[in-house]
Design goal:
The chain is mainly β. 5% of the residues lie in helices and 44% in strands. The strands form 17 sheets. The protein has a five-stranded mixed sheet with strand order 1-8-7-4-5, with no helix packed on it.
């Protein structure tokens, strides 16, 4: 092939590719916003005989709403390669043909046609398999019409399309003095943009006001009576009614807004502290607000108001009864809503009685979801803080930039009475020396040494946290000491490091780790000034294992490694080690000793499980790990002989959409739907002892039933479900009704409920005890049990509220 011919062929290929790209880009043009908004509506047939059907009348509606009047016919078949859309555009007032009307059609891609002098148009297009097309016709001075249609043949005739005369509507938003008011938007709803036949399409004309308050609606309006709606910071005076004349159109609109009548300000305590999340409402006008993190609020009225109003608290039970609602005028700015919260004075000193002038202070509701602290710098070591609501609070002082030990958390009940001054003593830490050596007594360099204050003797090293930590506060709520790091160091070339420690390390843990060595954990380490502590590390062994799963998915299994004998501290978390894709696992640097490797099996998560849960099986193997050696273990995991349950719920279970939940010893759940007749079939249940629970979509209703699942057996069982009604009246410790967000606990199940009434009705009532707590509080109420000899029961539940 000659060089010239080859160049011609290459040029032809490039030209064809370029033309294909241009066609593809043209076909990817999206439909107009209005057409896309109606794309979900079912299409209607195109038929010339139906084009003269009268339009359905409709009241103005917000946004675009389509009412359908006829079913869709059979769509064009997939073998159809081309089709044509025809029609004729005329003026609605006299039937005269309209030239230069633009008709857009969307099928696979956008096609456009223009009417001639006779008002006719014809557009060739490639139909979609469904036959659905979207058509929009528009012309200057006319109301655009649109619709989604179905073409049932190679030629679709829209017939005569009557376009109403449309007028551009513009105007300004001003105040009573005629000054422009920006920052608003104007809408007019209920514009009939129906494209025949047999549809009613209501569109909305929108406009955004400029800086001078001017606006122009983006959709021309036909003649008639309309209402302009104003959206923005100011309220519209009047109803916004205006008229579009069939010939003259509409005069420029002047929309007058009411004077600013929002009440703005801040919520503060008696000491001037900004209070966030305070719910406010007005006595008149229907305005509500919640103060921002900086205490700011804005109360905007929802209807006509009087000259002034009182500002009330939306949740008065959260705040002191001494609060006096202020009376303010509408439109008043810089209002200060003062809530008389009692202040707390905190004095911080060291163990020698000297003031600590720089520290972090945490004082917050005990059930907060995050730990918040602030820096305090005071030469006298004294500061004052204010609570943000009533309830249980936690106080903790954290040293900053000083070798001191964080204080133990203190819990204080905040009420209407003054809080007693708190004196917090921080213990200063001293420098101690630790030397880390190997079995040959040579120093181990770059070993990590950490001193930890632990919550219990069985704490896991993988869960130790630095302070300040939220988990430390949660442990304190449960009556445990905080688990958190106190100091950390790394050894030098000779294995020495300097560590900060308290005078007594009882209840502390020294953790020493180095890659290639088994980690070492020493409880109550004998650390003291001038007496170096020598810690010997042992070379670890490797545990390599594999599972023969017999074609069972690897993801269904994990392994757990337990010490064969009693251990004071487990160290690393080896409770659920995942397998590799080839069903193998490897644990490096395991401390020498005897272990038990147990197979765990996945339990399908249920309603309340956030992730997969793995439960132990009887498959286990005892192994001995030796230093600097690799110990291999292999376990056969034959297909499990699962059990099942063919159950029947007897009683009032109809029309309740109940579901059945099995809860095993590991609190893993399996959800099974119950049929309308109360029957259900639960399959693939690992053998074991289960608790049966029936719950509705909103509230748990736990049966006091236990079932034993045997391997390889699907046993029948019947559960009596008696319809009972339990009404709980929620009260504060002061005896006042309370509402809000709560957590309901019944047996092993929990539910979050949002109550706007102080009565909680459980129908059906659970057979097990019910407990309630505020969603953000820690304390549960006293349990309430439904009496067995009654079908209805009412009980009072005292719930401690917390912000």
């Amino acid at each position: 092939m000659s060089r010239t011919l080859r160049a011609v062929l290459v040029l032809g290929i490039l030209l064809a590719a370029g033309l294909s790209w241009v066609a593809l880009q043209a076909g990817n043009e999206p439909p107009p916003p209005d057409a896309a908004a109606h794309a979900s509506q079912a299409p209607l047939p195109v038929n010339a005989a139906e084009a003269t059907l009268p339009r359905q009348s409709a009241e103005p509606e917000p946004l675009a709403v389509r009412r359908e009047a006829a079913p869709a016919p059979m769509a064009i078949g997939r073998t159809q390669t081309s089709a044509q859309l025809r029609g004729r555009c005329v003026a609605a007032e006299d039937g005269a043909p309209l030239a230069d009307c633009v008709v857009d059609l969307w099928a696979w891609r956008k096609e456009r046609g223009t009417t001639g002098a006779d008002g006719c148009f014809a557009i060739d297009f490639v139909p979609m398999p469904s036959g659905s097309i979207t058509v929009r016709t528009q012309r200057a001075g006319r109301v655009p019409l649109e619709g989604q249609l179905v073409s049932s043949g190679s030629v679709a005739d829209l017939g005569t399309i009557a376009l109403p005369r449309g007028f551009v509507v513009s105007g300004r938003v001003v105040d009573a003095d005629g000054t422009a008011v920006p920052g608003h938007s104007v809408t007019v709803t209920g514009v009939d943009t129906t494209l025949p036949p047999g549809q009613v399409t209501m569109s909305t004309a929108n406009a955004r006001c400029g800086e001078d308050g001017s606006f122009t609606l983006g959709l021309p309006l036909p003649a008639g009576d309309w209402h302009a709606q104003l959206h923005g910071p100011r309220r519209l005076r009047g109803d916004g009614a205006f008229r579009v004349h069939p010939i003259a159109g509409a005069e420029p609109l002047v929309l007058v807004v009411e004077p600013p009548n929002e009440i703005t300000g801040v919520v503060v305590s008696a000491g001037g502290q900004l209070l966030p999340d305070v719910g406010l409402r007005t006595e008149h006008g229907g305005a509500v607000a919640i103060s921002s993190p900086m205490g700011a609020f804005e109360l905007a009225p929802q209807h006509e108001v009087l000259a002034s109003t009182r500002i009330l608290l939306r949740d008065p039970e959260r705040w002191p009864k001494a609060f006096v609602p202020p009376t303010v005028a509408w439109g008043e700015r810089d209002v200060r809503v003062v809530i008389p919260m009692p202040g707390l004075i905190v004095e911080v000193v060291d163990d020698a009685g000297a003031p600590v002038d720089w520290f972090q202070l945490a004082f917050q509701p005990a059930a907060e979801t995050h730990l918040a602290s602030r820096f305090v710098s005071d030469p006298g070591g004294r500061t004052q803080v204010f609570p943000t609501s009533l309830g249980l609070y936690v106080l903790r002082v954290l040293p900053h930039g000083r070798p001191m030990l964080a204080s133990e958390p203190r819990f204080l009940e905040v009420g209407s009475t003054p809080l007693a001054e708190q004196r917090v003593v921080l213990e200063r830490l001293a420098k101690v020396t630790v030397q880390v050596v190997g079995a040959d007594q040579a120093g181990v360099a770059r070993a990590e040494v950490r001193l930890v204050r632990v919550a219990g003797r069985r704490a896991e090293a993988s869960r130790l946290e630095y302070y300040p930590s939220l988990e430390a506060l949660r442990q304190a709520q449960r009556g445990q000491r905080p688990t958190e790091s106190v100091s950390w160091a790394m050894t030098d070339a000779s294995g020495l490091c300097s560590l900060e420690a308290p005078a007594s390390c009882n209840g502390f843990l020294l953790q020493v780790s180095k890659k290639g060595f088994a980690p070492r954990f020493l409880f109550d380490p004998p650390l003291s000034v001038g007496n170096p502590l020598r810690v010997e590390l042992t070379a670890g062994g490797v545990l390599a294992g594999s599972l023969e799963t017999y074609d069972q998915p690897t993801r269904l299994f994990r392994v757990r490694i337990d010490h064969a004998g009693p251990r004071e501290f487990d160290g690393e978390d080896m409770s659920a080690i995942p397998l590799l894709s080839d069903a193998t696992f490897r644990v490096p640097a395991l401390a020498p000793g005897d272990y038990v490797v147990r197979v765990l099996r996945q339990m399908t998560p249920g309603v309340h499980a956030a992730k997969d849960t793995y439960v132990p099986t009887e498959l286990a193997r005892r192994v001995t790990v030796r230093a600097r050696e690799t110990t291999e273990v292999h376990l056969d995991v034959p297909p499990f002989r699962d059990g099942g349950l063919l159950g029947q719920l007897v009683g009032d279970t109809t029309a309740r959409r109940v579901q059945l939940v099995f809860l095993d010893a590991a609190n893993a759940s399996r959800e099974i739907r119950v049929a309308a007749d109360g029957s259900f079939a639960a399959q693939a249940l690992p053998p074991g002892r289960y608790h049966v629970a029936v719950h509705s979509p909103l509230l748990p209703a736990v049966l006091a039933s236990v079932v034993e699942i045997a391997p390889g057996v699907a046993q029948p069982c019947e559960f009596a479900f008696t319809a009972k009604k339990l009404t709980l009246r929620l009260r504060t410790p002061e005896g006042e009704p309370t509402v809000g967000d709560f957590v309901l606990r019944c047996g092993p199940l929990q539910r979050e409920v949002q109550l706007r009434s102080s009565e909680l009705v459980l129908d059906p009532a659970p057979e097990l005890a019910v407990e309630i707590r505020d969603k953000r509080a820690a304390a549960w109420s006293q349990p309430v049990v439904m009496p067995r000899d009654r079908s209805e029961h009412t009980a009072v539940v005292v719930v401690r509220r917390q912000r």
